[in-house]
Amino acid sequence: MEVNPVFSLGPIGVTVPVVTTWGIMLALVTLSWLATRSLQQKPGPTQVVLEGVIGAMDRAVREVLPNAATQVLPFIGTLWVFVVVANLVGIIPGLHSPTGALSTTAALAVLVFISVHWFGIRSEGMSAYLKHYLAPNPIMLPFHLMSEVTRTIALAIRLFGNIMSLEMTAMLVLLVAGFLVPVPLLMLHVIEALIQAYILGMLALIYIAGAIQSQQQRQSEKREPHA
Q1: Paired strand residues for 13
Q2: Helices (H), 89-181
Q3: Is 42 contained in some domain?
Q4: Can you give the residue range of the structural domain that contains 129?
Q5: What would the pLDDT profile of 47-96 be if each residue is shown by its tens digit?
Q6: At 1, is the pLDDT very low, low, confident or very high (cuts 50, 70, 90)?
Q7: Are 1 and 16 in contact (CB under 8 A)?
Q8: Is residue 137 in some structural domain?
Q9: Long-range pairs of 189-194 with CB within 8 A, sequence gap ≥ 24
């Protein structure tokens, strides 16, 4: 993928993945506004599809976090929708998936990292949340911190590697076989893009659930009477 700056904002160079990401965000915001500005009690085809997608995401979140689904769904749902679209953009001739650039996946991983701690702190408070890094013994603090860093790096590299390899495989197959196998290759790209988006969203959901549920578990243990 082209990483040379397209233009500069002062000392900051804006690359192709960044421009594509901005375009996706603008398109999603515009489509969301158009799809929700005229909701009706008797839904039309577009509203039925929209409600079906949101309902499916809501059920997936509730299976993992039944008590906090309302709080977490907006973030996880937005993450799913964005990554799906970003992964599928590579199908359009002349465009590349921004998730095939490490800078984009690293930004998503950092966003997930921040959200995990945000929801964890929101669940019980900063002091109580930070104490779990010292459990069961303060000597575990470096290991807890290392775990946070390594899983964030793994999240970024996993999505980047899968999407980049998918686009490279598609390019190589087209170079060797020409356009004799475009439809199966296109379907493979779509399926893999959906799977990778689902995995990223589920991993983010599991990390957030771990932060919230650990707080709720410690809170319930405090309320239990000692035998």
Answers
A1: 8
A2: 102-124, 126-130, 141-177
A3: no
A4: 75-216
A5: 788 889 899 999 999 999 888 888 999 999 999 999 999 998 988 877 88
A6: low
A7: yes
A8: yes
A9: 189/88, 189/90, 189/91, 190/88, 190/91, 192/87, 192/162, 192/166, 193/84, 193/87, 193/88, 193/90, 193/97, 193/163, 193/166, 194/84, 194/87
